[in-house]
Each structure stands twice: as C-alpha cells, then as structure tokens.
Design brief:
The chain is mainly beta and about 180 residues long. The protein is about 10% helix and about 40% strand. The longest helix has 10 residues. Pfam families: Cupin_2 (PF07883).
C-alpha cells in the first residue's frame, strides 16, 4: 500500500498534515497479475485549486488528467513473463476502458500490447527496479533513480526483469 500525506494551512496560517493514510483500492489489471496503479492526487486546473480530500477520492479512475489539470500515480509493473503469454486485445481494451482512455490504446501492438499515446506531459521517476521504455524507433532501459520526460509520444513500459518495477508518474495536460 502507498502512504499519502496531504498538507494544508490552518486558519492561523500554520501548516499541518490534513491526512496521513495508506491508500486503499488501487486499480488492478486482471490481465497483468502484480500490476497496480494508485492515484495519489489530481488537479482540475492550473494554477491548482486546493480541493478537499473527498473531491479527489470521488473522481473516477483516469489515465489522463482532467482538462487543464494534472494527475499523480504510483505504478507497479510486474515482470512481462508473468502475464504476456495470456494477454489478448479484449483484455487490453478492458483495461483502457477502466481508466476512461479507450482512445489512448494503440492497435499496432507489435511493439508492445499496452502501447499507448496520450496528450500529456508525463514526468516519470523510476523508484524501484528496472524497466524498458518502448518507443517507435528505440527502446531505452531505465534503472532506479532514472527519470523520463514523456511528451505526448507513443510508448509502453516493458519489464524484462524478474522483479516488479515501481514508477511515480505525474501527468499534465499538454497541447
């Protein structure tokens, strides 16, 4: 489980932790055992409006941020060998539907079954493990501590290692 601390100022302009909790109900993908995505925070505008916690938790699962906003997730990608043999187009489409992003799914799956394209600027940090960033013209192997600035390009994440990889991704609406 992912721990989330949310800070705010009180009426006397003194900061405090409004919430300190372990988030529940991560998004799972039945087609990829071991995969999870946990929503940490999102905004619906820039500059961001400071919403209460209930608003954040009531927003449905999204791959992309709300128009003009941002969204921050922690992802865990299991090793490809755990799920790749059992994947099919129906299972992939089901995942993209569950995150309201059927349009992001790329049907040219010879590069990777979960190839996608979103109109977002994604700021990514590899927190744990190793993963390959699959692009149209190349594959980049990433290790713990590496960062990626993904600018609305077709891409997929492929874990060729034997252990899960954890990535923090902050996605922002892009033009």
């Amino acid at each position: 489980m992912v721990r989330r601390i949310v800070t705010i100022d009180n009426d006397q302009d003194r900061s405090f932790a409004l919430a300190d909790d372990h988030l529940q109900n991560p998004l799972l993908d039945p087609a990829r055992p071991g995969f999870f995505r946990q929503k940490i925070w999102l905004t619906d505008s820039s500059p961001a409006v400071i919403h209460d916690l209930a608003w954040i938790d009531d927003v449905p699962e999204l791959l992309e941020p709300l128009a003009g906003g941002s969204i921050f997730h922690i992802y865990q990608f299991p090793p490809d060998r755990v799920w790749l043999e059992n994947i099919d187009a129906k299972k992939i489409a089901s995942f993209y539907k569950s995150v309201n992003a059927e349009h992001a799914m790329q049907t040219e799956q010879n590069l990777h079954p979960y190839l996608q394209k979103t109109q977002t600027l994604d700021l990514c940090v590899i927190l744990k493990g190793e993963i390959s960033l699959i692009l149209d013209k190349e594959t980049v192997v990433l290790h713990e501590g590496d960062t990626v600035v993904q600018r609305a390009t077709r891409h997929a994440w492929s874990n060729h290692s034997s252990t899960p990889c954890v990535i923090a991704i902050s996605s922002h609406c892009a033009k």
